Amino acid sequence: MIKIEKLKKIFSTSNGRRIAVNEINLSVEKGEFFALLGPNGAGKTTTISILSTILKPSQGTVTVDGLDVVKSPHLVRQKIGIIFQDPSLDDRLSASENMDFHGRLYGLSKAQRLMQSESLLKMVDLWDRRNDLVRTFSGGMRRRLEIARGLMHHPKLLILDEPTIGLDPKTRRTIWEYIHLSRKRWGMTVFLTTHYLEEADSADRVGVMDEGILVAVDTPENLKKMVGPEVLVLQTDPENLESIRSFLENRFKINDCHLDPEGEISFPLPAGEGNAINIVRTLPGNIYSMTIRKPDLDDVFIQMTGKNMSLNQENASPFHRVYRGKL
Ligand SMILES: Nc1ncnc2c1ncn2[C@@H]1O[C@H](COP(=O)(O)OP(=O)(O)OP(=O)(O)O)[C@@H](O)[C@H]1O
Ligand SMILES: [Mg+2]
After folding, report:
1. Distance (Å, whole) CA 256 – CA 264
2. What kind and span of H or E run contains 27?
3. DSSP 213-240
4. CA distance 319 to 274
5. Is 38 in the pocket of ligand 1 (CB under 6 A)?
6. For the CA atoms of the chain, what is the radius of gyration?
7. Residue 140: beta bridge partners?
């Protein structure tokens, strides 16, 4: 459904050139649910803007369902539904009017517009509010309406740029129910960007993006397997962190510790290096608690980039690793 080859986007700024997307390669299958995970400024929205024909690539090619986004932007737009990171509803119109306007842009007949609008507004629980101005809607209601609007023309590819940011857990769950329902009904492909690890976790495959580079692409399970079977998390005094880090490096050859300034240190438990108790017993300083848990996508991100998703740059580890799985 999507083929991205050697895609590069360079912006000219007052301080010179900024490479927002740096030679990324990626294929997404029809019907796949793909999540692009990365911190602020990683290049997610820029990639999505090129996919949806809003921006032109500086280099490389992008096709959607076999159509080049630069050569056939109008045909590409017919195939996609997009939910932007920034709200894009007209709040001086009612919910129904927003739906109808979108349907007209996509050339739907009056009968199709009425039918689609009713079924989608019912799906997102806004049918009773259809005649109210969007200005009077809450944030969650607006987001639900944007999703209904994005589905109005039955897109083959739904692109969502952080669709649930700032929403409460219940609304986030509801929005995901609608998206999965639509996938089931129409076999729609979903391309999502998110900061939420659990959203990325439920995708078929995840791309980890940082500073314009796609550092890893694989299923969530495979990505987590690369970290190791388990992660050990220790709580100590903040001033003790560095001495524990160098001790672990020298004694156990553990090079990929992640330090949290609050006094937490975490690292993948090395296989065959003795169990966690043996490691902890030898450590200098006070250890207040230890937890052994399965790796999550945050650990994957740390391992790949030396930073965590919340991006504490000062805390970046020098041990960067670039993994190229199924790109
Ligand atoms: N129009 C522009 N002109 C100049 N620089 C830009 C422009 N748009 C984006 N950038 C820069 O490109 C980089 C990637 O931005 P982008 O919006 O793609 O990141 P993102 O991964 O979507 O981040 P976020 O999670 O904050 O939405 C950033 O350094 C940003 O400042
Ligand atoms: Mg963005």
Report:
1. 14
2. strand 16-28
3. EEEEEE-HHHHHHHH-S-EEEEEE-GGG
4. 23
5. yes
6. 23
7. none
| DSSP conformation class of 54 | S
| Domains within the chain, CATH numbers bracketed | 2-222 (3.40.50.300), 229-294 (3.30.70.920)
**Closest ligand 1 atom, residue 39 Cα:** 25
| pLDDT tens digit sequence for 242-251 | 999 999 999 8
CB distance 248 to 204 below 8 Å:
no
Q: Indicate the angle between helix axes 220-227 and 297-305, nearest 10 degrees.
A: 60
**Ligand 1 pocket, residue 194 CB under 6 Å:** no
Q: Is the CB of 228 under 6 A from ligand 1?
A: no
Beta bridge partners of 213: 210
Structure tokens at 239: 């001033």
Token pair 């030898």 in the structure block, residue: 282
Give CA–CA dist 288/91, Å, rounded.
52
Q: 43 CB less than 6 Å from ligand 1?
A: yes
Q: Tell me the one-letter amino acid at 118.
A: E
Model pLDDT for residues 286-313, shown as the tens digit of each residue: 899 999 999 999 889 888 887 766 543 3
Query: How does strand 205-210 pair with strand 33-37?
Result: parallel
* Nearest atom within ligand 1 for CA of residue 11: 4
Q: How many CB atoms lie within 10 A of CB 275?
A: 11
Pocket test for ligand 1, best of 17, 21, 37, 45 (most atoms within 8 A of CB): 45
Cβ of 17 closer than 6 Å to ligand 1, yes or no, is: no
pLDDT at position 129 is 97
Q: Which ligand is nearest to the Cα of residue 208, counting in written order?
A: 1
